[in-house]
Each structure stands twice: as C-alpha cells, then as structure tokens.
Amino acid sequence: MDGTFWDPVPFSWPVLLLLLAACLLLTVGVMVWTALQPEEPEVDSAALVDRSTRRDQDAARTIRRRLDADAGRADAAEPELR
C-alpha cells in the first residue's frame, strides 16, 4: 500500500515556525488590545437604562391590566386594554 495518502504534505520546519510565530503574534496582540480597552464605556448610559426600565415596567403594567381584564377582575372597556 502506498504511504502517500497518510502524508500528503511533506513536513517543513519553516512553515511550522511561521505558523507558530503568527499564533504568538496574534495572541500577544489580542492580550495588549484587551489590556488597553477601557473598563467602563465613556458614554453615560444611566439615561438609557432608566428609559428602558421605565418602558419595560409600563409594558408589564399594561400586560397585567390586560390579563386582569381578560379574567374579569378589571374593566375591559378601556381602549388600551382592547
């Protein structure tokens, strides 16, 4: 049986060293990039979080009122609940 099937590409030290150098360079680059990233975003996001929270609470309140209206525990005549 011919042994070339199991060894289709001949081994080459320079290719292996180039691949290892590229891997090492990318690893060091990612580590430096990660270390230089700021911990917190520079934009104050408190207003966005407050607006999202308020919107989510309003949506939850509306859903709760709709469920109460469907169950007969509230007046379903309000336009918002239809």
Task: Please provide a written account of the structure.
- By secondary structure, the protein is mainly alpha-helical.
- The protein contains 2 helices and no strands.
- The mean pLDDT is 84.
Q: What is the radius of gyration computed over CA atoms, rounded to a whole number of angstroms?
A: 31 Å
Along the chain, the helix and strand elements come as HH
Number of helices: 2
Strand content: under 5%
* Low-pLDDT windows of residues: none
Spatial separation of the terminal alpha carbons: 78 Å
Major sheet size, sense and barrel closure: none
General form: elongated
Helicity, in percent? 55-70%
| Number of E strands | 0
Q: Could you say which structural class the secondary elements and strand pairing correspond to?
A: mainly alpha
Rounded average pLDDT: 84
